[in-house]
Design brief:
Layout lengths: L1 E8 L9 H9 L8 E7 L2 E7 L13 E2 L5 E9 L2 H7 L14 H12 L9 E9 L4 E6 L8 E4 L3 E5 L2 H5 L10 H10 L12 E3 L4 E6 L4 E5 L13 H18 L7 E4 L4 H13 L5 E6 L8 H11 L2 E6 L2 H6 L5 H4 L8 H11 L5 E3 L4 H5 L3 H12 L4 H13 L10 H10 L5 H7 L6 H7 L2 H6 L6 H11 L4 H27 L4 E3 L5 H8 L3 H4 L7 H6 L6 H4 L10 H4 L5 H7 L2 H7 L4 H13 L5 H19 L1
Parallel strand pairs: 13-14, 13-16, 14-15, 16-17
Antiparallel strand pairs: 1-3, 1-9, 2-3, 4-5, 5-6, 6-7, 7-11, 8-9, 8-10, 11-12
């Protein structure tokens, strides 16, 4: 895995790029590539690269990398797993292309020479790449289908800048540091920032499954090259679907074992990571290195199930127990690797497990994408249950059931009955995409507006966060609602939330994380399965469970989803309470000019009194304040 950056001068009389600036941008991402660094400047264009050597460890893989005559220059972050197949299929050697390495990077250069921008649609992998075409005087940028690898850009009147991390863009003092208020508004709903926007005004992301062309005059053309197609294949039998799924999962995993360095696996004890471990055991020789996370709070702890799988497949297993003290030690420092506010409680545990894994391996397989591909979330099951629940008369639902559920005591436990019951009833009378959001929403529109100062509210007209789900729900155009909800998760939650912690927290330790459940052949096939197979009789991940029958222990196959999260709702009342009161105190809040201290204090008081679990909202606000201090006010 690597980090890339660059700058194109686009003014009528372009200023030559400063090599020292490209070096500063490059070295700001040293953690992404400790094995090698390189930069190249030619008049109006400059490229930088940090390398983590995974395939072909020799110096021949040095970047920026050029074709034979130097007319095409590449910087690239990621792994393209089918690069050898593409080299053969397109007869690159026969056509006279000269190869100096065994890297996928060099295949990309020559593939671009043969196919131009169309080459990106043939890549199976995770990647962000930038190609400078000297003949056309044009920059070509592309990002993988699921946004596994990050890609940011910023443009002003005279320059177009791009990088794997925002901090590289900020290395240029001409790039302004202003918070984007719409991004803040969305963050308070999701605890992550959805879409192409970032926390910084004027800095954006290239969307997953898209490429961009930038001319020497600064004209940009963004185009989608791939999308999930949920057109159902009603002719497939369940037996064939199970067999094909097992075959494609095995192929996806084998592709992601290609490396010249040791490979391990993150083993949570859940169905997805256990599946990866089982398939690795069928493929690899020698011991498998597995790594797990645990908590003292048993409702968050999956270590017993991780140990069960490790024992079943004879892995060399190691664990890390996450405590409140460890979390305190990481605040706010871990946000330096993310560069944006991020309220997903799985990030810090992922940081620590990555630190543990990097002691032994350079690559780790991760189970992200399994819930999106196989219908594994409670929201998916809730959609099926809503059809039956709506048969109950409205006066019973709204005048009897909702008040009764409202009397349930607030619980700090993971996925408690109280939480599920309130979320289920709250979404019962909403359209499907809005109910889907309701299950995950942190603060609603009114609650967010109540937090802002008058000055903040006067500066922008906030668009509602639900627009992201509505747009994705409409774009899917699938004939069934379940597939449309899965499309939302695959195109928003997966790239904008899960892949952030997956990339930034692993790369903080120069560890490459690979995600087999995002293989486009696998996900493309699963998308075509009829909804009755995706979720059979309310059983989440039915096809995956059937495919792993007889391979995984029954206790794993029948286990309920827990998911990686921290017990911060309880910690904020005790161990992390002084930290929360510091970051959400009046002085800090007033210094930003964004939030009303008394409104934030009400959230704190409700949480401390047990009237409402505001843990997610308070954790998100703390992270926003820490980010603001690090990147805006500090």
């Amino acid at each position: 895995m690597c980090g890339l950056c660059g700058m194109l001068a686009t003014g009528p009389v372009p200023d030559p790029i400063d090599p020292a600036l490209i070096d500063r941008m490059t070295d700001s991402m040293a953690h992404r590539g400790p094995d090698d660094r390189g930069s190249w400047v030619d008049g109006r264009i400059g490229l930088g690269h940090r390398r983590l050597s995974v395939i072909d460890l020799s110096a021949a893989g040095h970047q920026p990398m050029a074709n034979e005559d130097g007319s095409v220059m590449l910087v690239y972050n990621g792994e393209v797993y089918n690069f050898r197949e593409l080299r053969t299929r397109h007869r690159l050697d026969e056509k006279g292309h000269v190869f100096r390495s065994r890297t996928d990077s060099e295949v990309l250069i020559h593939l671009y020479e043969e196919l131009g921008t169309e080459m990106v649609a043939e890549l199976n992998g995770m990647f962000a790449l930038a190609i400078w075409d000297g003949r056309r005087q044009e920059l070509f940028l592309a990002r993988d289908r699921y946004g596994i690898k990050p890609f940011f850009y910023q443009q002003d009147e005279g320059h177009f800048r791009f990088a794997s991390e925002i901090k590289a863009l900020l290395a240029d003092p001409r790039v302004p540091r202003r918070p984007d208020l719409q991004a803040l508004h969305d963050f308070l709903s999701f605890n992550y920032i959805p879409g192409t926007q970032t926390a910084f005004e004027g800095i954006a992301e290239i969307p997953p499954g898209h490429h961009m062309r930038v001319t020497a005059t600064g004209e940009t053309r963004l185009a989608r090259y791939w999308d999930l197609d949920f057109t159902p294949d009603h002719g497939i039998s369940e037996a064939d679907a199970v067999a094909r799924t097992r075959e494609l999962m095995q192929t996806a995993l084998e592709r992601r074992l290609i490396a010249d360095v040791p490979v391990g696996v993150f083993l949570s004890g859940g169905l997805d990571s256990s599946t990866l471990t089982a398939l690795m055991a069928r493929t690899t020789q020698g011991p498998i290195h597995s790594y797990a996370i645990g908590f003292e709070d048993q409702s968050f702890n999956e270590l017993p199930h991780a140990r069960m799988v490790a024992e079943a497949f004879g892995t060399a297993h190691r664990e890390v127990l996450i405590t409140a003290d460890m979390v305190r030690d990481m605040l706010p420092g871990y946000l330096r690797f993310i560069d944006e506010p991020y309220g997903d409680g799985s990030a810090i545990p992922t940081y620590y497990i990555s630190e543990l894994a990097r002691q032994e391996v350079v690559v780790a397989l991760s189970g992200e994408g399994g819930d999106e591909a196989f219908a594994g979330y409670d929201t998916h099951a809730a959609h099926n249950a809503y059809r039956k629940a709506r048969m109950v008369p409205g006066f019973i639902r709204n005048r009897i059931l909702k008040p009764l559920v409202g009397l349930l005591p607030v619980s700090d436990k993971k996925l408690s009955f109280e939480f599920k019951a309130k979320r289920f009833l709250g979404g019962l009378d909403l359209p499907p995409e809005e109910a889907h959001l309701w299950w995950r929403i942190v603060l609603d529109e009114g609650e967010k507006l109540a937090l802002y100062t008058e000055e903040t509210r006067a500066r922008f007209e906030p668009a509602p966060a639900v627009r992201h789900f509505r747009e994705a729900f409409a774009r899917s155009a699938s004939p069934d609602v379940l597939s449309r909800l899965m499309y939302i998760d695959s195109t928003i939650f997966l790239p904008d939330d899960l892949m952030i912690k997956n990339d930034r927290m692993t790369m903080a330790h120069s560890l490459e994380a690979r995600v087999p459940f995002t293989d486009p052949e696998l996900t493309g096939f699963l998308a075509t399965l009829p909804p009755g197979l995706k979720m059979k009789r309310g059983r989440k991940k039915h096809i995956l469970r059937a495919a792993m029958q007889g391979i995984l222990p029954p206790a794993i196959l029948d286990k309920k989803k827990v998911g990686l999260e921290m017990p911060y709702s309880r910690w904020l009342k005790r161990e992390l309470n002084p930290l929360m009161r510091d970051w959400l105190g009046r002085e800090r809040l007033e210094a930003t000019g964004l939030f009303r201290p008394e409104a934030v204090a009400r959230l704190v008081d409700e949480h401390m009194a047990g009237r409402r679990d505001n843990g997610r909202a308070l954790w998100g606000l703390m992270n926003y304040m820490m980010w603001h201090d690090l990147r805006i006010g500090g």
